[in-house]
């Protein structure tokens, strides 16, 4: 545990030091960082996500990083698949929806709606709700065209309606 956390700290220091010059290393470190999103320890998963957000903030734009993270949606470890959804929610809250090409990401989330693991399915729904919070009704229309089972769409759209009613929308 300590070794992993120290490694994440060292990478974080490198990102701070190198800033956009770290961009060249992103492809090298991302596979390991994706693996760590699935770590059994909460502290490792949290530090890892913090580092990924820091990379998006200081080394390369969020879309550049996300283009290289899409494989995480198909990762063998369920915690990594769940973690990538949580990381997407965090990215939206830090950088906003305009920082990402969500049309590239949504199909991957839709695949996770049928994941064998319930935590992954819940995280996928939550990330769609978060996208909806940022983007609005376009998401509903888009999901309707994805060929998802109606029962699943009903669950998601009910959550969209709840967010809409709660007044927590962030539309720009």
TrEMBL record:
User: Pfam families, alphabetically?
Assistant: CLASP_N
- Please name the GO terms of the biological process aspect recorded for this protein, alphabetically: cell division; establishment of mitotic spindle localization; mitotic spindle assembly; regulation of microtubule polymerization or depolymerization; regulation of supramolecular fiber organization
Q: What is its main location?
A: cytoplasm
Q: Which Gene Ontology MF annotations are present? A: kinetochore binding; microtubule binding
UniProt KW keywords: Cytoplasm, Cytoskeleton, Repeat
- The record places domain TOG at 1-169
What SMART domains does this protein map onto?
A: TOG
Give the protein's recorded name.
CLIP-associating protein 1
Which species is the source of this protein? Gavia stellata
């Amino acid at each position: 545990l300590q070794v992993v956390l120290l490694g994440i700290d060292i990478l974080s220091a490198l990102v701070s030091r190198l800033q956009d010059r770290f961009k060249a290393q992103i492809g090298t470190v991302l596979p390991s960082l994706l693996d760590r999103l699935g770590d059994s320890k909460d502290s490792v998963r949290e530090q890892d996500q913090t580092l990924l957000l820091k990379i998006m903030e200081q080394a390369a734009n969020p879309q550049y990083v996300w283009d290289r993270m899409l494989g995480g949606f198909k990762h063998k470890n369920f915690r990594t698949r769940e973690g990538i959804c949580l990381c997407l929610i965090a990215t939206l809250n830090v950088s906003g929806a305009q920082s990402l090409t969500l049309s590239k990401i949504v199909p991957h989330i839709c695949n996770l709606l049928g994941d064998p693991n319930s935590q992954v399915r819940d995280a996928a729904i939550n990330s769609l709700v978060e996208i909806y919070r940022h983007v609005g009704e376009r998401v509903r229309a888009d999901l309707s065209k994805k060929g998802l089972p109606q029962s699943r769409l009903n669950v998601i759209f009910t959550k969209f309606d709840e967010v809409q009613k709660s007044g927590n929308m962030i539309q720009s």
